[in-house]
Amino acid sequence: MRHPSARFDLAEAQRSELDVAWRRFAAAASPEEFCQSWLELQCQAISGVNDALVVLQKPGIETFAPLAFWPEGRRERPQLAQIIERVLREGRGLVEPRRPNYQIAYPVRLDGKVRAVVGLELAWRDEIELQAAMRQLQWGAGWLELLLRRAADPMEAARLRLNMILQLVAAFLEQGEYRDAATALVTELASRLGCDRVVLASLERGAVYIEAVSHAAQFDRQANLLGATINAMTEALDQREPVVYPAERETRPVVTLSHAELAQASGAGGIATFPLLHGERQIGVLTLERAHGFRFDPQSLELLEGLAGMLGPLVDLRRAQQRGLRAHAMQAAQDFWSRLVGPGHGGLKLATGLLAALAVFLAFATGSYRVSADARIEGEIQRAITAPFQGYVREAAVRAGDTVRRGQVLARLDDRDLQVERTRLGAQRDQYAQQYRDAMAKQDRAQVRIASTQIAQAEAQLALVEEQLARTEVTAPFDGILVSGDLTQSLGAPLERGQVMFEVAPLDAYRIVLQVDEHDIAAVKPGQKGELVLTSLPGHRYPFGVAKITPVSTAREGRNVFRVEADLGSNAELRLRPGMEGVAKVEIDERHLAWIWSRRLVEWLSLKSWAWLP
Fold first, then answer.
1. Which of 165, 235, 404, 495 would you label with 389, given CA atoms 20 to 30 Å apart?
2. Cα 218 to chain center, whole Å?
3. So what's the pLDDT on residue 221?
């Protein structure tokens, strides 16, 4: 019988492993790290897992590639490849018995398409346990779907990093006393980034002083590491550079001897040290350690670099508050004035004089007032090519971006059903013609009229089918470029009558559509001139004239904009294509530079004062 203390140690070890897995999952900053920690959690929740694999669709293409493996030591999973390929073909979850094991694969969908597949190989078990395993995968698939949705938005990852930085800063600012704030910061940072230890220190008169250590309950047991930690901090401060150990190949070379000694002493798998600066002055340093086998990935380092940039001034300010904020501010003002009027400090005096001269210059100098707006090139006319009747795509010869000629075949619809219908109607017409001849021979007038009507009906139906057959080839109405439509990936897909297949625009007739902000629309008038610079052709400026202003605003990216149309005239080139985007500037008139550069602030203050004042 196993001793109770042994069972307790086993349970403690399992809880510790689960805690580490959840910490890795919460701190994941890359898709690979997210999927690996998620798969580890699933394999701990489902008993009897021998092998596991997550494949994910590569961005922008249809190829799937393995992204996470369990166990991590072996990356080849040939036994799971077959069932995963079946799931990709069939688009549904599968369970296959392969004694002495079971194989389970479950698809993860996004917007109706399979974007990832999870495959597991389990020890042989009964149906109830298999259903429980499948339910666990279904419940856990929501996390992968969240990852896919975040990856679809290129700004989402940056937003999440900024959100975490703000939360960490909030944890630092919420505490009343500085020591409490520093302890809360390092503890929260260790929890969120999966670090074993985070240390914050100050730099005073060239010496490093430890101020806070995460998980303060373990502080005494790790006191022997403080000397090595201070050496590592000093190493980063001397170089005035962040130091990461083990160093990445693409980073600039830095000295990491003290960091290597700290890693050997603490058993850390990754160490990152960031000097904290307030302006050009180093005021402290932050060191983070991760467990053995866990390095700092580029996403985490990018987050920490942004956090360090924000923490420097905040930490310096909180320390100054301990001496009294008002007294500190007054002292700073006195120091500035004494440096300005006293001897020395030529750079400060020069900068102050230049600022005063700049203010005088801005008060009298004038410049060209121009309104900037996002712009897009559109065809002057744009023809939609629709499906002539209900059918299926048989062949697609072109796609969006291709140049086409008038009468060129763009796509062909499946005509097999129409061919069969034409044969049937032809035979039916011949049958009615024979009946007509028989009735004429028998001089049966009633039957003659019936047969004649049936022949006319069959010929009308046959003519309709012939017309549809002639329209199975979809052709270009004029020379131009396809601005939308790609059926090369939809061969065999059904089409409804009137469904837009392509949109084509001419190659020699364009207009510019400007999205002018509501704050600037009052200054824009028809007939004004301007210039357009395209993202794809930044070295060329295209003159244009404002032609039309739409009096209705639309919401775009959280602000109201007005659609303004402009003519390129004879400035159009063969290099231009519909859909090109850039920035347009409309010339308004001459104004004072001070007004041009401060008008946004003045308008905002005027509006707010009107709203606030009674």
1. 404
2. 40
3. 44
Per the DSSP assignment, residues forming a β-bridge with 555 are: 560
**Whole-angstrom distance, CA of residue 580 vs CA of residue 446:** 69
Residue 455: Cβ within 10 Å count: 18
Q: What is the DSSP letter of 345?
A: -
Distances (CA, A) of 311 to 181, 185, 200, 441: 12, 10, 11, 106
How far is Cα 258 from Cα 147, in angstroms, rounded to an integer? 37
Beta bridge partners of 105: 94, 119
How many residues are recorded in the chain?
A: 614
Written as one string, the DSSP assignment of 53-120 is EEEEEPTTSS-EEEEEEESTT----HHHHHHHHHHHHH-S-EEEEETTEEEEEEEEEETTEEEEEEEE
Distance in angstroms (rounded) separating the CA atoms of residues 475 and 457? 30
CA 451 to chain centroid: 68
Which distant-in-sequence residues (6+ apart) come within 8 Å of 339 by Cβ? 345, 348
Task: Say if CB 101 and CB 121 are below 8 A apart.
Answer: yes
Question: What pLDDT shows up at residue 8?
Answer: 42
Question: Long-range contacts made by residues 518-527, C-beta under 8 angstroms, separation at least 24?
Answer: 518/553, 518/559, 518/560, 518/561, 518/562, 519/600, 519/603, 520/371, 520/373, 521/549, 521/562, 521/564, 523/369, 523/371, 523/588, 524/371, 524/549, 524/564, 524/586, 524/588, 525/549
Question: Consecutive 10-residue runs of the chain (614 residues): their mean pLDDT?
Answer: 45 58 67 76 80 74 71 67 84 81 83 82 77 78 73 61 80 83 87 83 85 70 74 90 80 82 86 89 89 75 87 84 63 66 74 83 82 87 79 79 79 76 79 81 80 81 77 77 78 81 78 90 90 89 89 86 86 74 91 83 86 82
User: For residue 10, what pLDDT is reported?
Assistant: 44
In this prediction, residue 563 carries a pLDDT of 92
Query: Model's pTM, two decimal places?
Result: 0.37
Q: What are phi and psi of 516, to 5 degrees?
A: -90, 130
CA dihedral 262, 267, 272, 274 (to 10 degrees): -40
CB burial of residue 267 (10 Å; 0-12, 13-18, 19+): exposed
List of domains in the chain: 12-152 (3.30.450.40), 158-322 (3.30.450.40), 383-504 (2.40.50.100), 509-612 (2.40.30.170)
Q: Look at residues 501, 515, 503, 486 and name the one whose alpha carbon lies nearest to residue 377.
A: 515
Task: List helix spans (H) across 91-225.
Answer: 127-152, 156-174, 178-193
User: Rg of the chain over CA atoms, in angstroms?
Assistant: 36
State how far the Cα of 214 lies from the Cα of 185, in Å rounded to an integer: 8
- Model pLDDT, residue 7: 44
Q: What is the pLDDT of residue 274?
A: 94
- 540-560: string of b/e by CB count within 10 Å (b at 16+)? eebebbbeebeeeeeeeeeee
Pick from 118, 115, 92: nearest CA to 36: 118
Q: What is the DSSP letter of 538?
A: T
CA 433 to each of CA 25, 298, 420, 424, 426: distance values in angstroms, whole numbers, following the listed order:
79, 81, 20, 14, 10
What is the C-alpha to C-alpha distance for residues 53 and 62, in angstroms, rounded to an integer? 19
Predicted confidence at residue 218, as pLDDT, reads 53
